[in-house]
Amino acid sequence: MFFYCGSEPEPEPLPEQVPEPEYDFVVVGAGSGGGTVASRLAHLGHSVLLIDAGDDPADNNPTYPVPAAHPFASEKPGKSWSYYVEHYSDPAKAARNTNAMCRINDNPERRVSCIVQDNGNCDCPDGTSREGIFYPRGTGIGGSSANNAMINVLPKNSDWDSLAELTGDYSWSASYINSTYLPILNDWASIEKYEADWLVNDIHGQYVQEMVESAVSVVNPPNFDSNKSIVENLNDNNLLEASLANEEEGMWVLPVAHKDGFRASVRERILASACLADPLNPDGLSDSQRENRCKNDGLWDYDNDSPLLVIQYNSLVTEVLFDSQDSKQATGVEYVVAEGAYTADKTHQDASGQTRNQAYAAKEVILAAGAYNTPQLLMLSGIGDPEVFNRADINIPLRHALPGVGRNLQDRYEVGMVYEAPTKLEWFERCLSFFNNILGEGCVAYLKGVATLNTQSEKSVLSTNLSFASILTKSSPDKPEEDLHIFGLVNQFTGYFDGYSAVGLQPERFTWVILKGHNENRGGIVTLKTDSPFDRPSINYHYFEDGNENTLKLGGNPNSGETDLEGILTGVKLVRDIVHNAEAVYGTQYQEIWPGRSLQSDEELKQAIRDGAWAHHAFSTAAIGRDDDTFSVLDSDFRVRGIENLRVVDASVFPRHVGTFPILAIYLMAEKAAHDIDRVN
Known about the structure:
By secondary structure, this protein is α+β, with helices and mostly antiparallel strands. It contains 21 helices and 29 strands. It has three domains: 22-62 and 155-184 and 264-410 and 618-679, FAD/NAD(P)-binding domain (3-Layer(bba) Sandwich); 82-138, no CATH class; 195-253 and 413-516 and 562-612, Cholesterol Oxidase, domain 2, CATH 3.30.410.40. 29% of the residues lie in helices and 20% in strands.
């Protein structure tokens, strides 16, 4: 027996427990939806923690501010995420897409292109396995608005009105959205139109000018005044104003999110709302002066002596937290602080062993992680289709059944008709070294502007997004409104694959892109690949007829595949008419690289469309719907059905794909969400 003599030693003091700070709102994802709703809630006087898995996309990244460098920005390691998706459930159909990527079995972080066989299939070489079709997304503050092509087009009024009709909620109507939130958007979103005479005549050169003139001749744009020149008409006509008036059919210069020749995104708004300095747009204020300005603007949280909007960088949210095991009341989120924690990041590092942190919301948690990650995060939190949680490989208990989570995945179809001119395009000669080396010697005046953070002193092709014109036309007789968007690019673009940004720089080539909006197909699905929060989800769009069955289950057109194909075919034929007319009038002969003039019949062209279509604006995987709709995930106020204090505010919420380019619709939706949330909090 051991006896201790003397006084007992004092126990070691426990480490001081630092309580997790509590915010009014925790917003997951700093993209177009999350960045907008978080910024607005702060301006409305609420404390907000904005969590994103990335950092500032402009840090050590010369591709961010340069509009023409957006393809490089979309592949920038650490600044973008690489998803790989499938277009078909049938492997034989999937194998016909020549953009497919294959992962190296011994090194899964590396990928190579598939190899085209004599039968037209693109098969993975030995030692590799099929990965899918590259689908880039933005990460960090700004999300995909930090690496997209900056095209900002308003949705159709009918897009809003159909939501109002579906929900019975007038505040979704076009008249209410446009009168209430569009003026707010105009206060901060930099949406400018290039000058047509410079864009068409001065920068891009002879062949582009021929194509624009030929397009006017073939299309006979209804918005053009016959007494004015082409560039005068393009300068006079504003696509955003035409959209509001439901008069979009015609030819336009695209409205683009740029300011003084530099990219503008929601990133700049987030930094300003968080009272942070922006190195790309210095305000000349000291930290104390900036703090005082924020206090004067009502953006300061005096209880915590910090800005109302706080950004948590490099933090991957792993699940939503609830107040008990069986509870359906969200209280916060769990997250891991680590750079490159998600496998879609090309700088990925294993973070599975990292400490899990918690952030709590006194009022609500708002998911804005995008159409892929929001449904993934709901499922990781036990919310979704019971079939997912019944899988043997998924060790997550079902908290609440919502079969619509991850279903209804939609996108617009695009195809790129590539043509080769007899000699190099003029712009390419001027800026070749820039694209060979982002810090090269080409386009000197513009690069000096980037280096000194001053407005460019001389116009340059680098201040464009490489587009030169846009045509909108009706796609088919069964579509009462314009849903076919055709625009020209001065590079080669036939879809996404690893390294596409460099391959597209072909000095003699340009592309007519045919974009089909308002697609009938609603058959895509996002589901868990594994139950790890660090893994990408499984994504299949079920293109064309492959999506008919799922579309029908959701109440859509049983013949959606053929309807969508016919619309795109209309655009393909129109582009060919434009090129043939240019050849006849100007005598210039263009080689059709894709799909190739050997394909002439409708069926041949439809097959080429099936094989070569792509997309990059994912939508609708946590959709608003009626109370009696089995697949409805949200009510009209963005609340997750059956769950308290949890909302979704990103592209997932729209039941149908909105417009041709979605970013303005997302901004407007997020502004509406912030005001709706503020009214009840």
